[in-house]
Write a structure and sequence with these properties.
The complex is a heterodimer of chains A (about 1000) and B (about 210).
Chain A lengths: L1 H21 L8 H11 L1 E2 L20 E3 L6 E5 L6 E3 L12 E3 L4 E3 L14 E3 L6 E2 L13 E3 L4 E5 L12 E3 L4 E3 L14 E3 L21 E3 L6 E2 L13 E3 L4 E2 L15 E3 L6 E2 L13 E3 L4 E5 L12 E3 L4 E4 L15 E3 L4 E5 L12 E3 L4 E5 L12 E3 L4 E4 L13 E3 L4 E4 L13 E3 L4 E5 L12 E3 L4 E3 L14 E3 L21 E3 L6 E2 L13 E3 L4 E5 L12 E3 L4 E4 L12 E3 L4 E5 L12 E3 L4 E4 L13 E3 L4 E2 L15 E3 L21 E3 L6 E2 L13 E3 L4 E4 L13 E3 L4 E4 L13 E3 L4 E2 L16 E3 L21 E3 L6 E3 L12 E3 L4 E5 L17 E3 L6 H6 L3 H18 L2 H19 L15 H6 L20 H7 L3 H14 L4
Chain B lengths: L1 H14 L9 H12 E2 L21 E3 L5 E5 L6 E3 L12 E3 L4 E5 L12 E3 L4 E4 L13 E3 L4 E5 L12 E3 L4 E6 L17 E5 L12
Parallel strand pairs in B: 3-5, 4-6, 5-7, 6-8, 7-9, 8-10, 9-11, 10-12, 12-13
Antiparallel strand pairs in B: 1-4, 2-3
Classes of the chains: A alpha/beta (about 1000), B alpha/beta (about 210).
Chain lengths: ~1000, ~210
């Protein structure tokens, strides 16, 4: 032991000797200057802050140093904000007289040397604002004279060393903006003189130590943005000097201890963003010095029991984002004395009418009551809040008119009233609000015209009146709003033309006039809207050609002019090369598609459907590699699909249907991996369906209807395992239905009708158990028997196998198709007896099968005895007539009455179902469904009320009714 | 510092209020649904709430007035729960959510879907009771809730659904007796198997929720 000490001493002696010898040639031979030079050598000094730290000058003349009066010892080092980097030398411990070390706001790295613990005279250690890492050395606890320790805003980590509790002289402790974890050491309570404690923005967890009440002189406690949990210690109530308490954004729980009401000097209290619950204690009202109280984003419940009338110095009260109920208490503010400037109560469950006593809060500048359940009218005295700049009442149920006195709130800058039930006109007095910048009235029920006076509010930057019932035209003077950025008038009843002066709102970036009745042409003044970014005019009555000068609008991003009557060329819209979405659906644009469109390389949505565009698809489209929605359907396009489109790898919706496109289906379609919807229907494509399509494994909808496609349906169709809808109707396809189709497990609509398909129906179709909308194999040349597996299609609502050469009996398993609403087996070679439950389908479902019998066709007994079906039906009528005549008069009357009831009831059928279908309903489906007249057509079957017929039979099992029903059916169907 | 903090709160409050450029209630309802669901195969990737309406989203079908009429999310590998917002799709006719991994209760708000023709929720993990509010689905023809974990009794209110033609609650954990009125007179027994049901209702003899 002793020898170790001796050894240490020897080493120490040698070290000192060495250092003394090393500097012996210099003017100053002290150990201090030597260690300072060692300190310098560890630093990088790009701006030369340490240039005069030279052995040739006395150290007391060096920059940043303070020496003792006798010039022998360094007392202070201040190198704050000197752009120094490098690390702190452990040699500094030689400066034994050092009282102040300030290296703050540099770029120092490395750790805090533990040797600093030897600076016994150190009073102030400022290392904040560097990139120091590692832990706080435990030795820091040895600095008995330390009064200020500020080492925050570094990369320091680990736990806060408990030895910090030894620094009993400490007044300021700043550890914020580091990566400290673990809990706050309980020894902190020993720091009797601590005034300022900043622990913000670390990862501290655990409870706030109960011992904190020992910090009797604490004035500022900030521990926000940590992971502190548990209760707020009630003992904090004894911290009578506390002025600032910030515990925001932790995980504190429990309720606010009533003792906090005793911290009589508190000016700032924030508990924002914790998990605190229960009632807000009314004892907080005792905090008469309090200026800011933020309890937002917690789980507080119950009524608001805080009164500005008591907390007389309150400037800001934030209770947003809790579950507070009831109304704002009356007498909340006392007029004349209130200093409250900000009151935020948003996102609670507050209710009741607008609290009139709020009008006593005369200093209010910002009032936010949004997202509550307030109701009733807006008070006419609102203008008493003459300092109000922001009024935010959105997402409530306020009703009634907007009071005209609002025009007297001359400081108002934002008026946010959206999502209420406000009715009536926008008062013309609004025009007096010269500072008004934002007016959001969307989602209300306001009506009348937009007052011309609104255009006097020349500070306006944002107008949003979406979803009201404003009528009349846009004020002709709107061009006075030179600062307008956003004009959102969508979904109103505005009419008339766009006033040319709108073009003078040169700052306009967003113009949304969609869903109105605005008419006329676009004014040529729009060429001045050079900042315009987004323009949506869809669903109006605009017409005529576009002004050619729109080509000057180079910043356009999004254009939606769909559902108008614009005509002429689309070229004027293509001046911008930064378009991302262009939607001109359903207009009368004509001429070719300009290849200039392809200058917007970021174009992702291009919708030009339902116009009169002609010519070919420009091959330059191949450069639109971001294209996602590509819809050119319902035009007069000709020619082939350009092979360059194979570069558009992002296409998800590829819609070219209803044009006059020719050529073959390109095999490269199989390389469009994102493809979800492919509709080439109603064109003149010929050749085979490319097998490569099977690679589009994400394809949901494939429609190639009404082309001239021939050859087989490729086996690879089975690779489309996501497919929902497959429509190959009306082509020249031949060969067998591939059994691989069974792999399309998600298919719910399958149409292969009107082709030349042969062979038998693959029994594997019975595995497509999600088939729902229709299975249509009609008008082919299919033969063989109907596979009994089709009985597994439990969800199928329509089955059409008509106009084929199907043979054999109708499998009994089809009776399991309980969802079936429409069945057509007509015009085949089916035979035998129909399952009895099929009597619920109309006759036309089965006609044209000579050997088929049983209801609703003639009974099998009769069909066996008679050759002529027509005659046998006549015989049925005869028999029934005979029965009727041999019945008694009473029975006849009864039958008649019951039939009348049944017939009336039958009219109210389920014909209203089946609306689902596709976006653009095919004409033929219109009469098939949704048409209560149920017109007959030879190809399709009658909509029937089979949903009810069986159960009615069950409930009224009278044979009389059954017979008469037959009669009605036959006489009703003049086909017989 | 304290004031700076407060200012930043206020600014963020203001920022949360933006013009209503994307306001569409059906799209918002579907987007709210998406936020409740986990979607590992990106079936809902195309559901962009910034679009004017949801009619170009995959798995969504609209009518000519841009109202959502079909929601086809069967076999889509999605999990999570449903929320009340689905009840806002007033024009919906087909709600196809079958064979997924959706759990939780069936929201009673689905009873607001007055135009609904078909509700296919079979093959999920739905629990709790069949909402009584389904009695308001006057257009409903197909109701398939089989292969879930539903409990409680079959609500008697469903006997008023005159159009109901297919009703399948097999393979659940339902209890009580099976109604016999209205459309229930014609449903096959297979629709009720593998529950804790006590056979058809015997009116006046035992309460319908006998054994629950």
């Amino acid at each position: 032991m002793g020898s170790t000490d001796q050894m240490c001493n020897l080493v120490l002696f040698l070290a000192i000797l060495h250092s003394v010898l090393a500097v012996s040639l210099d003017d100053d031979n002290s150990a201090e200057s030597y260690s300072l030079l060692r300190f310098k050598s560890g630093l990088v000094d790009p701006v030369g802050a340490l240039d005069n730290w030279s052995p040739r000058a006395h150290m007391c003349s060096w920059n940043g140093l303070t020496c003792s009066p006798n010039q022998t010892h360094v007392l202070g080092i201040n190198l704050s904000s000197s752009e120094l980097s490098g690390s702190i030398s452990h040699e500094l411990w030689h400066l034994t007289s050092l009282e102040i070390l300030d290296l703050s706001s540099n770029s120092l790295v490395g750790s805090i040397p533990s040797e600093l613990g030897k600076l016994q005279n150190l009073q102030m250690l400022l290392l904040y604002g560097n990139s120091l890492s590692g832990k706080i050395p435990e030795e820091i606890g040895l600095l008995k004279n330390l009064q200020v320790l500020r080492i925050g805003d570094n990369l320091l980590s680990g736990e806060i060393t408990p030895s910090i509790g030894n620094l009993t002289q400490l007044r300021v402790l700043g550890l914020a903006y580091c990566q400290f974890n673990g809990s706050i050491p309980s020894g902190i309570g020993n720091l009797k003189h601590l005034v300022f404690l900043d622990l913000q923005n670390n990862s501290l967890d655990g409870h706030i130590p109960e011992e904190i009440h020992g910090c009797e002189e604490l004035q500022n406690l900030a521990a926000s943005n940590n992971k502190l949990e548990g209760d707020i210690p009630a003992s904090m109530g004894v911290l009578r000097s506390l002025q600032i308490l910030n515990l925001a954004n932790n995980s504190l729980s429990g309720s606010i201890p009533v003792e906090l009401g005793q911290i009589s000097n508190l000016k700032y209290l924030s508990l924002l963003g914790n998990r605190l619950s229960g009632q807000i204690p009314s004892q907080l009202n005792q905090l008469v010095q309090l200026e800011t109280l933020d309890l937002s984003v917690n789980n507080f419940s119950g009524a608001i029991s805080l009164f500005n009338a008591q907390m007389k110095n309150l400037r800001t009260l934030v209770l947003s984002g809790n579950d507070l109920t009831g109304n704002i208490p009356s007498n909340f503010c006392l007029s004349n004395s209130s200093k409250l400037q900000q009151l935020f109560l948003a996102r609670n469950s507050l209710s009741g009418k607008f609290q009139l006593d709020l009008l006593n809060c005369r200093s209010l500048q910002q009032l936010d009551l949004s997202d509550n359940n307030f109701e009733g009218g807006l008070p006419s005295g609102l203008e008493k809040l003459e300092h109000l700049t922001d009024l935010q009442l959105n997402n409530n149920s306020f009703s009634g008119n907007l009071p005209s006195e609002i025009g007297n709130m001359s400081n108002l800058e934002s008026l946010i009233l959206f999502d209420n039930m406000i009715t009536g006109r926008l008062p013309p007095e609004i025009g007096k609000l010269q500072r008004l910048s934002t007016i959001y009235l969307y989602d209300n029920q306001m009506s009348g015209g937009i007052p011309r006076e609104l255009t006097n509010c020349t500070s306006l930057t944002k107008i949003d009146f979406f979803g009201n019932h404003f009528t009349g035209s846009i004020p002709a003077t709107i061009g006075k709003l030179k600062n307008l950025n956003v004009l959102q008038l969508r979904q109103n009843d505005l009419s008339g033309p766009i006033p040319p002066s709108l073009g003078y709102c040169k700052r306009l970036q967003i113009m949304a006039l969609a869903d109105n009745k605005i008419s006329g042409t676009l004014p040529a003044t729009f060429r001045f809207l050079t900042e315009l970014n987004k323009i949506t005019l869809y669903n109006n009555s605009f017409e005529g050609p576009l002004p050619a000068s729109l080509f000057l609008l180079k910043n356009l991003n999004i254009i939606n002019f769909s559902h108008n009557r614009f005509s002429g060329s689309i070229s004027p819209l293509l001046g911008s090369n930064s378009l991302t979405a262009l939607d001109l659906t359903n207009n009368s644009f004509s001429g070719p598609i300009p290849s200039a469109l392809t200058q917007s390389r970021n174009l992702s949505r291009l919708r030009l459907a339902h116009n009169h565009l002609s010519g070919e698809i420009p091959s330059e489209f191949g450069s639109l590699t971001k294209l996602n929605f590509f819809d050119l359907s319902f035009n007069n396009l000709t020619g082939e699909v350009p092979p360059q489109l194979s570069n558009c790898k992002k296409i998800q919706h590829f819609l070219l249907n209803n044009n006059q496109l020719t050529g073959t289906m390109p095999p490269w379609l199989g390389r469009l991996e994102e493809l979800g919807e492919l509709d080439f229907s109603f064109n003149e494509f010929h050749g085979n369906i490319p097998a490569e399509l099977g690679n589009c494994s994400g394809l949901l909808k494939l429609s190639l209807q009404s082309n001239k496609l021939s050859g087989n349906i490729p086996q690879e169709i089975g690779n489309l395992t996501s497919l929902n809808v497959l429509n190959l109707q009306r082509n020249n396809l031949s060969g067998l239905i591939p059994s691989t189709i069974q792999e399309c497990k998600k298919i719910f609509e399958l149409r292969l009708s009107e082709n030349f398909l042969t062979g038998s129906i693959p029994p594997e179709l019975g595995k497509l158990t999600e088939l729902q909308v229709i299975l249509d194999l009609s008008e082919n040349s299919l033969s063989g028997e109907i596979p009994s597996s089709l009985g597994n299609l439990m969800k199928l609502e329509r089955l059409n196998l008509s106009l084929n050469h199907l043979q054999g009996e109708v499998p009994f398993s089809l009776t399991k198709l309980t969802s079936l609403d429409m069945l057509n087996l007509s015009n085949n070679d089916l035979q035998g007896q129909l399952p009895s439950t099929f009597s619920r389908f109309p006759l036309s479902s089965f006609l044209g099968n000579d050997k088929l019998c049983g209801p609703p066709l003639v009974s099998c007994l009769e069909s066996a005895g008679q050759d002529n079906k027509g005659l046998s039906n006549t015989a049925v009528v005869g028999i029934i007539v005979a029965i009727v005549f041999t019945s008694t008069l009473i029975c006849l009357v009864m039958l008649y009455m019951i039939v009348r009831i049944w017939y009336n009831w039958r009219k109210v059928s389920i014909s209203s179902m089946g609306g689902g279908g596709t976006e653009q309903r095919r004409e033929e489906e219109k009469w098939e469904y949704g048409n209560k007249e149920k017109r007959r057509n030879g190809e399709y079957w009658k909509v029937n009320s089979m949903a009810s017929v069986p159960s009615q039979d069950k409930q009224n099992p009278s044979t009389c009714i059954f017979h008469f029903k037959m009669d009605a059916e036959i006489t009703g169907n003049t086909l017989v | 510092m304290a004031h700076l903090y407060l200012l930043s709160i206020f600014l963020s409050l203001l920022l949360s209020i933006s013009p209503s450029l994307s306001s569409n209630s059906e799209g918002n309802a579907l987007h709210a649904l998406r936020s409740r669901l986990s979607d590992p195969t990106n079936a809902l990737q195309s559901w962009d709430p910034a679009l004017v309406n949801p009619c170009t989203w995959f798995h969504v079908v609209c009518d000519s007035n841009n109202h959502v009429t079909r929601l086809d999310l069967g076999n889509s590998n999605i999990s999570g729960t449903l929320g009340p917002e689905l009840g806002q799709l007033k024009h919906l006719k087909y709600l196809e959510l079958y064979r997924n991994d959706i759990g939780g209760k069936i929201p009673k708000e689905l009873g607001n879907l007055k135009n609904l023709v078909s509700m296919d929720m079979y093959g999920n993990r739905f629990e709790g009771e069949i909402p009584k509010s389904f009695a308001k689905l006057k257009s409903l023809i197909f109701l398939r809730l089989n292969n879930n974990k539903l409990s409680g009794s079959i609500p008697r209110e469903l006997t008023t659904l005159k159009e109901l033609k297919v009703f399948d609650v097999s393979n659940n954990d339902l209890c009580g007796t099976i109604p016999v009125d209205g459309p229930f007179a014609s449903f096959p027994m297979e629709s009720f198997v593998n529950n804790r049901l006590n056979g058809p209702e015997l009116k006046g003899l035992v309460p319908y929720d006998f054994g629950c």
